[in-house]
Every structure is written in structure tokens, then in C-alpha cells.
Specification:
With 336 residues, the protein is α/β, with parallel strands linked by helices. The chain has two domains: 31-134 and 262-285, Rossmann fold; 137-257 and 303-335, Response regulator (Rossmann fold). The chain contains eleven helices and twelve strands. The chain has a six-stranded parallel beta sheet, sandwiched between helices. Strands 7-6-8-9-10-12 form a six-stranded mixed beta sheet, sandwiched between helices. β3 (91-95), α4 (100-109) and β4 form a beta-alpha-beta unit. α5 packs parallel to α6 (165-181) and α7 (198-210) crosses α8 (223-234).
Amino acid sequence: MLRKRTILFISVLVIVLVIAGCGQAKKETKIKVAMVTDVGGVNDQSFNQSAWEGLQRAEKELGVKISYVESNQDADYKPNMETLFDAGNDLIWGIGFKMAETLGEVAKLNPEQKYAGIDCFFENPTPNLVGILFKEQEPSFLVGYIAGKMTKAKKVGFVGGMDFFVIHKFHYGFMAGVKYANPECKILAQYADSFTDAAKGKAIANQMYKNGADIVFHAAGGVGDGVIEAAKEQNKFAIGVDRDQNDLAPANVITSAMKRVDNAMFNLTEDLVKGEYPGGTNVVYGLKEGAVGIAPTSDKHVPQDILDEVDKVKEMIISGELVVPSSLEDYKKWMK
């Protein structure tokens, strides 16, 4: 009898250990997702930060293991990708259009590794690569409409980061929105040729305010910190980008053209977890998909009647009745 109890005890113990071992194995095989930031760093209060917030949400809601590596210069992209590849990540993100070439290269070198790029378009993406794009011109049109309605000087400004197609979408979408709301309004525009030089952003914005602009919109990453600082010092208005930037200057940032990089990061990571990774494609997000829009804090400074008008314009864009220009060529045609 004692022997039977001993055998039964050992059998139960073995089962418990096996179950525990399976649980441990399951824990150890948790899906790993990592990202390589652009040069602005993970705490840029803009683009990279929004991307990281999306992965943090994925960690909380989907149980994935997340990490990041920061890039200090363009030359860091490939070594950082290699570091994350060696770490055994299931999905590696590249944040920013400047990483597209590197992503294309490493995806071909490592066909079993899954990659995705924010603001990256791939002509013929390999099955292990996904490009994520946004219709940045759409939220830019909405904040441009707000600027056109709220300017008292009938002069506003735009500060761009790098002179590149992604920033052009912000630029010409904004200009079209301003003109749609206020055809007589003048628009000053300048590129900083940087996404990190806040001092240059401040200098450009100060000059625009000096030249009579009372609202300046930036699409310039860390350069925009300087734009917002100038707005605070000059007691003028600024418009943020990518995430709701009102917290940087509550009395001066009247709205922001939000680009929900965080949602895109979360959505694709969720697809990966479900086994539905859309490799070999480019995915485009806009107002219709709820991936872009204006900041929820806009009602702090923007009158309700203008916000109501913005809602109507938004529906026109979603329905296709109003097509927002995304380039200089499109803008010129649109103005005619």
C-alpha cells in the first residue's frame, strides 16, 4: 500500500514538473519585437516616441517582449539591425523613411527574419518585409484649415525637417488646408535640413513670427521643439505633429497633426501574434482607417464652430469628395 502511494506521488510530481516545464518553455518562447529608432531617439516627443508607445501597448495587451536600439547617425542603421537580428527577435522595425534602403538590404540577406518599416515604401517588398505608409497630407489639411480660420495676421508658417516626400505631404496638405479656409492667407515655408537641430527650428520660427506669422506648423521631429519654444517666448501659436504636443506648451500649441505611428506599430504586431503578418506588401493608413487626425486637446484653443467645420471637412476627405494634395505638383493642380 505504501509502495502504491509512493508511486502515485511520484507520478503526480512528474506531471506537475512537466506542466511547469511546458509553462516555462512557453514563457521563454514569448514573441520578441524590437525597433531601431531614427536619429531623434526614443524620447523625441514625436515620431520615435510614438512608435515606442505602440510597442509598449503591445507588451501590455499582447504579452510580447519588446526592446529598442537608438541610432545616433544614419551609419548606425545597419549595425543596429544586425544587433537586433542576433538577439533573436521575431519582428524588427525600422522607424523612418531613411531606413528603407537598409531594411531592403537586410530583408534580402535574412529571408527568415521578419521586418517592417514606418514611412517606408518598397517597390517590390520581399515576403519578409512590410512597408507602412500614412496619408500625412490629410491631418495636415485639417490643421491647415484651423490655422487659416484662426490666424489674425492672415500669415502663417510651415517648418519642415528634411526636404523629402514624406515631409512634402505635410507641407502641401497644410498649405491646401490654409487656402481652403482662407484664400487670402500668406504661407511662409522653410526646411531645416534636420530632424534634431532644435536651435535651428527656433531660429526659423522666430524669423517667421518676426515677419508677421502668428501660427507656425512644424513637421520636423526634434527641430519642432525649437519651433514650440519660439512660440512660447513670442506668445504666438504653434501646431504640433505626430502626437498631441499640447503638453509641451499648453498655452501655445493649439492643435497637432497626429500621425498614429503607435497604432500602426500595435496593429502589425497584433497581426504577427495572430499569424497574419502581411509580408510582401505596403500598408497605407489615413483618416478612413482612423490612423491620422487632429489632437484631442484641440478644443482647448480652437472654437467649437471651427471644430464642427473641421469634422465636415474630414468627412469630405473620407468620402473622397475632397482629395488632398501630397506634392507640389498636386498642390499646383489643386489650386487651379
